[in-house]
Amino acid sequence: MRLIHGDCFEILPTIESESIDLVFVDPPYNIGKADWDKIDDYMDWCERWIAECLRVLKPNGAFWISHSKPLQLARLSEMVAAHGRDLINWITWDKYNAANAGQKWRMNQTKLHPQGKRSWDTDAEYLIYHADEGDWSAKCDKERGFIFEPLRAYLDGERLMAGISQRQVISHLGMTGHDPHFFKAVQWKLPLENQYQKMRQLFNRNGNEYLRREYEDLRREYEGLRSEYEYLRYTFNNPGKMSSVWQIPPAKRNVHETPKPLELMQRIIETTSNEGDLVLDPMMGGGTTGVVCRNLGRHFIGIELEEKYFEMAKERISAPRQLTLAR
Q1: CA-CA distance, 294 to 316, in Å (whole number)?
Q2: DSSP 10-41
Q3: How far apart are CA 297 and CA 285, in angstroms?
């Protein structure tokens, strides 16, 4: 863990280019929460740290930014995309589950004057997740013939020798969508094992032996060729069925006015980085990102300008390891 008390605009230039696996930034929202939350030329200020964070981020690294104002966050997303990092997800962080939201609504209704507030409360914040797969896609496109073509040609050649049309295969397997691409050079895909076995039955119906190679041999050959470039892809440890609306209760206030909950940071770090990766939080506040990195076996660089927040982050990150929360 490397914790630095200072201005991120002075510290970031000292970090090696393309050395960080994940960057998470929870910047001031410029809504007047405190003196540090009042910034002139706010968007120009954001553009400066965005550019520097992207400089230190690896080509396949994950970049996260949180904000309470959707329009401002959309502009920040455009800035990031302009540097070649595509928007992967827009996350809505719903701070209250259904029961709490209903209770809060009922309480508000009893307090509001008939001529009072004329809009809904916003009990949400938002996050953008950007990453880049350009190097992986470009490399695979360049080597497409080497990776895909021998296997595609084998399947299509066996089909032709058996005298079976593509339409017959599609009908026999009940294929839809991209499945017919088993035989096409464009968007080729490896069939599933059950589909491959059905093709063997269809092709061999005339008594001649076709598709003599075993499915596992084909699959291993394919995976071996593909894995050569897998390290170029951005990390996404798929957590299973989960939407882009996250219902996570807010953290209790501590010394910091706007702390992030451990569960929120755990979901981000667990899903878009791997154990042993290096995570950067250039405005770490009370240190929640660092606490989660310590719990999950990630390396961490945290930068904080305000001394009281920095001391709080040091204390929290150096405390005995906490159990991480379930997703």
Answers
A1: 10
A2: HHGGGSPTT-EEEEEE----SSSSSGGG--TT
A3: 20
Establish how many alpha carbons lie within 13 A of residue 57's alpha carbon, considering only the half-sphere containing its beta carbon: 28
> What one-letter code names the amino acid at 33?
K
Q: Tell me, yes or no, whether 312 lies in a domain.
A: yes
Closest CA to 220 of 144, 149, 151: 151
Q: At what angle do helices 193-203 and 166-173 cross, to 10 degrees?
A: 130
Q: DSSP 3-state assignment of 240?
A: coil
- The string of pLDDT tens digits covering residues 50-87 is 999 999 999 899 999 999 999 999 999 999 999 989 99
Per residue in 182-217, pLDDT (tens digit) is 777 766 777 888 888 888 888 887 777 888 777 778
Same domain, 311 and 264: yes
CB burial string 198-211: b at 16+ within 10 A, e below: bbbebbeeeeeebb
Average pLDDT of every residue of the chain: 83
**Pair 99, 58 in one domain:** yes
The pLDDT value recorded for residue 251 is 82
What the block records as the tokens of 2 is 């490397």
Q: Are 39 and 30 in contact (CB under 8 A)?
A: yes
The C-alpha atoms of residue 65 and residue 127 are separated, in whole angstroms, by 6
CATH number for the domain that contains residue 77: 3.40.50.150
Give the chain's domain count. Answer: 2
φ and ψ at residue 202, rounded to 5 degrees = -65, -45
Q: Is there a single domain that holds both residue 91 and residue 13?
A: yes
**Do residues 128 and 257 share a domain?**
yes
Distance (Å, rounded) from C-alpha 185 to C-alpha 225?
Answer: 16
Nearest-angstrom CA–CA distance, 246 and 232: 28
* pLDDT of amino acid 99: 41
Cα 242 off chain centre by? 13
pTM score above 0.85: no
